[in-house]
Design brief:
The protein is mainly alpha-helical. It has one domain. The protein has four helices and no strands. The longest helix has about 40 residues. The chain is elongated. The relative contact order is 0.17.
């Protein structure tokens, strides 16, 4: 196998990994934790309202926006699906 063939066969793997990683980071980590921490700064909001669910819904919306903005590639859609399942499970619990 020539060097050019080896490099061209490695590109899709890196592209998939990059899309998977960015969709998870942007949708789940930054948005969910950041908004939840921001809302938790207010003691009134933190004690009276389900801020974890609000942060999860906002993170789902952010992940869907990221998916649409990047062109909805297969790797990104797979990451979106996993992110939505994880965040929706935190919305469906009976606790705040």
């Amino acid at each position: 196998m020539s060097d050019e063939q080896r490099r061209s066969s490695a590109r899709p793997v890196f592209s998939h990994h990059h899309n998977f990683r960015r969709a998870n980071d942007a949708g789940r980590g930054d948005l969910f934790c950041g908004l939840r921490r921001l809302l938790a700064l207010s003691q009134t909001l933190a004690l009276a309202y389900p801020i974890k669910k609000w942060a999860a819904l906002f993170a789902i919306a952010g992940a869907v926006f990221y998916d649409l903005a990047t062109g909805s590639r297969v790797g990104t859609e797979r990451a979106l699906f996993m992110t939505v399942i994880m965040l929706a499970s935190s919305c469906s619990t009976g606790r705040r």
